[in-house]
Amino acid sequence: MAKVCIVFDRLRTEEKMLQKTASELGCDAVMLDAKITQINTDSRREDYDIGDIVLERCVSYFRGLHFTACLEFLDMPVLNMFEVANICGNKMLMTMRLKKNNIPTPKTYFSFSSDGAVKNLEKVGFPLVIKPVIGSWGRGVMPIRDRDTMEAAFEIRDITDSPHDRIYYLQELVKRPPRDIRVITIGDEAVAAMYRKSSGGFKTNIALGADPEICEITKDIEDMATKASKAMGGGILGVDMMEDQDRGLVVHEVNNTVEFKGLARVAKRDIPKEMIKFALDYIRK
Fold first, then answer.
1. Which of 30, 111, 145, 159 sits CB 3.0–4.6 Å from 5 for a disulfide?
2. pLDDT tens across 144-195, in order?
3. What percent of the chain has pLDDT over 70?
4. Do 139 and 212 fall into the same domain?
5. How far is CA 218 from the centre of its chain?
6. What one-character DSSP code corresponds to residue 165?
7. Would the pTM of this model clear 0.85, i.e. be above it?
8. CA torsion, points 10, 14, 17, 19, in degrees to nearest 10?
9. Which one, of 223, 195, 240, lies nearest residue 88 by Cα?
């Protein structure tokens, strides 16, 4: 009997759904808390009850990334692989990978100091959207529509001066309906999609209160999601798209440990079941 290990650092609805589904499919499900697990350079795979395949589901990007590196050090197959997690978790790397693979994405400007970002904005003009290169749930994402907003945003970054605050990721403000599209891809296949409608503000994150609504997976959406998944290296991903009024679909983000409880409420296909089945097929190859 196959054994699936679900690694977490905060036990959310999604991880409980995956555990329940694995049991229903007749395989053992091991829950492993990354926060209290120790690994050293003499560790071996057989030292841990981690089964045959790991689904890495940590909320913390850095914890999950480094835990994945440790698991791969133990020759443990992990979904998603370190390289995929590393690229998806950094918006700058992810955006460049999309562009390199000829996938439509909003024009994005990179600067490496507040002075450089000011010059970029002065050259390009307002508005632009500033995003932290690492982060989720829409935190730190805001439109910069004028000089006062720019100065306030940059001043905060200069004060906190964390390593990632020094990387300025500025993106065009796409002319779109007040929504975006989240597509979950499993093994490069688009299995479910939803519109995330803004609850009145700029952001469309479900975690911030945006409303999920089922989205039919058109041929364009399917093709775009598959290309984005392949560009990142595949696995289980969340591909976020916007409907640009001039260019059509553009991909603005690809997520590694994708949340799916909102989409699971409206999806036609059983998302956690598809994830577990993919994990089991992954180790059979």
1. 30
2. 999 999 999 999 999 999 999 999 999 999 999 999 999 999 999 999 999 9
3. 95
4. no
5. 22
6. G
7. yes
8. -50
9. 240
